[in-house]
Structure formats: C-alpha cells, structure tokens
C-alpha cells in the first residue's frame, strides 16, 4: 500500500499516466493469440501483462497512475484489485472513445501532461515513459510508435476531440492516421523510441526470448512464459501464419 504522503504527492502531480485496460474476461482479451493458445492461458497472460504494466507505471514516482477502461469493466477491475490505482470509466465504446476520454478527463487541470499507455508493454524501459512526459514540455503531442504501424503510447497536454475520431484504431495504419490528423490540427508531434507490444504470435515469441535473459523486466509475465514456454516456442511467426 502507498503511504498517505505518496498518494498526496501523486494526486497533485502535473503528470498523469493512464493505463488503458479491460477486464480479463475469457475470449475478450488478446483474441489474436487465442487462435493458437488455450483461451484460459491467454486470459492469464493478459492478467500478467497488466500486473507488470502497473508495476512499471508505479515506478515513475513523479506521475499519478490511473486506469481507464470501458464502463462495464470498472467493477470487475476494482474487485480484482490488480491495479492499485483509481479506475475511471471511459465514455463510449472502443479504443478511440477511450483515448478521447483520457484527454478530455485528465487535461482539464491546467498544465497537466497526460500519457495514455497500453497494458501490454510491461517490458518497456521506464526511461521511455519519462522521456514521453519530457517531450510534452516542447510539443503538443508525443507518440510511441510500434513496429506494426500502431502506437503503444500517446500523450498530450490538451484535449483534441477529433484526433482519435473514426476508424483506423487497431490497424496497421493507425499511426499514419493519427499523424495526419495531428497535421491537420497543426499540432507539433514528438516521438519516443519505436517498440513492440504483445498482440500477435511473433510478439510473444520475441518477448519470451527477451524475458529469458532479463525476467525482472516483467516478472509475472516471465513466470507465465516459463509455464507455457513449450507452447510459445512452437508458435508460427512467419507473415503468412498471422
């Protein structure tokens, strides 16, 4: 548990790190991985990724950590007690609505710098999150691109309702669409280091290799990978298999 002093310091912080999460319901999380692994195992993997992501988020002493999720998931995430953070319901359905909600809700405080971070990159160096907040000192938006054409984080210091509007979320063109909208809004954009999240089979195989060498990066996920290592090692990773 955090002390009252730590809680007060974080609640008054000018940095807010919002983890985008879902309730870990079988068949509703990591659905692409569930094509090749048992759905119960994939659900457990999501829980591990979320737990490790929250540990990473809490390692930033200067940031207030919050979870945002669909309204239907708030009660379950609170009941599980996984986040050790405030859980806030987004307005509307889908990731675009969630991201719009993040900045509408948390940039209401003057001078607030807000980063929305996915729940499946717990192996990201904490220094990258710190650099994302620093980038907002000089830019309107900061983006962390993924290798598959999406992004693992996006930050801003004001709400821009049309930035995430419409389709394209979760596709290989998501980053390009975001940058085009930022250009039309005349927003300056900074980038953090490209990284990978855990959406597809090759991502999980890559993570398994990384955590074998450095399990402390994401210890809960590393334990899951030990149990499921043989099955993960057999996953096809070629482009034709995805």
Task: Please provide a written account of the structure.
The protein has one domain (4-228): Alpha-Beta Complex (Spore Coat Polysaccharide Biosynthesis Protein SpsA, Chain A). The protein has helices spanning 4-11, 39-58, 74-80, 94-106, 126-135, 174-184, 201-213, 219-227, 229-233; strands at residues 15-20, 63-69, 86-89, 113-117, 141-145, 151-156, 189-191. It starts with a helix and ends in a 9-residue tail after the last helix. It has a 7-stranded mixed beta sheet with strand order 3-2-1-4-6-5-7, sandwiched between helices. It is globular and about 50 Å long. Mean pLDDT is 89; it is low at 1-11. Helix content is 40%, strand content 15%. The relative contact order is 0.15. Helix 3 links the parallel strand 2 and strand 3 (86-89). The chain has 9 helices and 7 strands; from the N terminus they run H-E-H-E-H-E-H-E-H-E-E-H-E-H-H-H. By secondary structure, the protein is α/β, with parallel strands linked by helices.
């Amino acid at each position: 548990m955090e002390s009252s002093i730590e809680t007060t310091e974080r609640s008054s912080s000018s940095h807010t790190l919002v983890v985008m999460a879902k309730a870990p319901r079988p068949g509703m999380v990591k659905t692409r991985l569930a094509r090749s692994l048992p759905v119960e195992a994939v659900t457990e993997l999501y829980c591990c990724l979320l737990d490790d992501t929250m540990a990473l988020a809490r390692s930033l002493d200067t940031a207030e950590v919050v979870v945002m999720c669909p309204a239907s998931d708030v009660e379950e995430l609170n009941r599980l007690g996984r986040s050790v953070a405030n859980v806030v319901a987004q307005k509307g359905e889908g990731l675009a609505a969630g991201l719009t909600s993040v900045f509408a809700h948390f940039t209401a405080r003057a001078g607030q710098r807000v980063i929305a971070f996915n729940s499946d990159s717990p192996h990201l160096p904490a220094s990258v999150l710190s650099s994302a907040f620093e980038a907002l000192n000089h830019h309107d938006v900061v983006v962390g691109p993924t290798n598959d054409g999406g992004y693992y984080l996006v930050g801003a210091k004001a709400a821009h309702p049309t930035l995430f509007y419409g389709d394209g979320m979760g596709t290989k063109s998501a980053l390009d669409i975001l940058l085009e909208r930022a250009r039309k809004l005349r927003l300056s954009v900074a980038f953090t280091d490209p990284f990978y999240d855990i959406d597809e089979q090759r991502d999980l195989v890559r993570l398994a290799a990384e955590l074998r060498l450095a399990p402390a990066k994401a210890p809960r996920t590393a334990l899951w990978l030990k149990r499921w290592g043989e099955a993960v090692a057999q996953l096809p990773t070629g482009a034709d298999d995805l």
